[in-house]
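The instructor's notes for this session suggest beginning with a concrete chain rather than abstract definitions. Hand out the sequence below and ask the class to guess, before any prediction is shown, which regions might be ordered.
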Amino acid sequence: MIRIGTADYLQTLRVTLVEGRLLDARDGANAPLAVVVNETLARKFFPGQSAVGQRMWFNGLPPGVPMYTIVGVIKDIRENGFQASPRPGYYFTAAQSTAAPDYLVARTQGRPEDLAEAVRRIIARVDPDQPVSAVRTMDDIVDSDVADRQQHMVLLASFAALALLLASIGIYGVVSFAVAQQSRELGLRVALGASRQSVLWLVLGRGLKLMAAGMAIGIAIAWASTRALQSLLFGVGSMDLRTFAAVIVCLTATAFAACYLPARRAAHLDPMVVLRDE
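After discussion, reveal the predicted structure:
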């Protein structure tokens, strides 16, 4: 992957510098040939050592052309999409290359769309015969690249929310049924001196034990099926512990809320009414 731009091309993109420096005005036509590479290239050709200061020669250059010196290493830029693995990348200045840049990149302080027409007029003033097409913001480019995956994730999130709602209703129904079945036992406990607080925690404990068993099984299945979701993730590992921790906290809070209402109702049972009904 070869990219050619002006001296401030990389600064405009705000790439992350890992080592060395970026290309700038020092890398003019009469300066020593300089190149910036990405991390993938540095790891591949210079493993275990610094790539800055190393010299490179490229196929296709005429004999006698001096070698390029690596002046900086930047983080990989996924120009071919989020799913594609980064390829070795080289970045030159147009002043030190026979090829010309194909794109104009501009950074704005306001809405980029508002400056599109002004950029067209400036280009037409410099070269009236230069066509201008495919004017897009960086947000549009990123959004178009992740649109399909975003739809998949929204669909998965919707099903997950529905599953969480159904699980909450199911837990509430099971605990409520258990409270109804054990109302005589709970009434006797209260009649024999058990505090309402202890009855509350008794019912909550039984419900949360069931929740814990189900959660353990669910997390084990989720852990085993993470590879199936790997292609939908970017920047997050399929076994990201923080994600699993967030899911556990969310499920625990949901289960607690579903168990609390039946437990609270059980804690306020009137033992005389329960024993009379029996």
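Then share the key points. The chain has a mean pLDDT of 80. Strands lie at 2-5, 17-20, 34-38, 55-56, 68-74, 90-93.
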